[in-house]
Amino acid sequence: MDAGGDRLHPSNIAVIREVYDSEYSQHGFSMELEKALDACCSVIVIEPSQLGDETARWISFGNCLHKTAVISGLTSIVIGFVWPDNVMIPQGSTCIISLLSTALYTASWQFDHCVKYQVEKDPRKLARLPILGALTTASPVVLVRKDDTNRKILHCTVSVAAVAFCIFRLYCGLK
């Protein structure tokens, strides 16, 4: 790919090496990561610590939004069944949190290639990667490509169900 050598291996593993030369900088590492994400590599190993940390934080933030959408949506639905019929504030509040989290997740991550990746932290799974012995850093960030279709369907379905249930309860309460 560039001055750091062949980084896309036949096993579909991309390695972003921490190699500096006259024209290579942190911006070069970011461009190389973008190329690996665009190539849909099954595993991406990021050696530069700053880039790896930023990428891991971005993915964690997306995971947090997803979990917030699902948990608050489910909480809204449960509150709707458990709470007295005349109190809509707790159910409505958690429903709005779910809806906003889903909207933010969809708007921010819909076209981002990082949405397809998760940070792999399991030492047993990491030990199976053939390239880890040839790395120049002791603590790389390893991204593994995952299918996110079920994740998107889950948080969208839960949010829509929570909104529909809130509207239904509000409609029944106005009768």
Automatic annotation (TrEMBL):
It is found in: Mitochondrion inner membrane. It comes from the Eukaryota. Keywords: Membrane, Mitochondrion, Mitochondrion inner membrane, Transmembrane, Transmembrane helix. The keyword Cytoplasm does not apply. Its main location: mitochondrion. One of its GO terms (cellular component) is mitochondrial inner membrane. Pfam families: Mito_morph_reg (PF14972). The keyword Cytoplasm does not apply. GO terms for biological process: inner mitochondrial membrane organization. InterPro entries: TMEM11. Plays a role in mitochondrial morphogenesis. PANTHER family: PROTEIN PM1 (PTHR15099), TRANSMEMBRANE PROTEIN 11, MITOCHONDRIAL (PTHR15099:SF2). Belongs to the TMEM11 family. This is Transmembrane protein 11. It comes from Henosepilachna vigintioctopunctata.
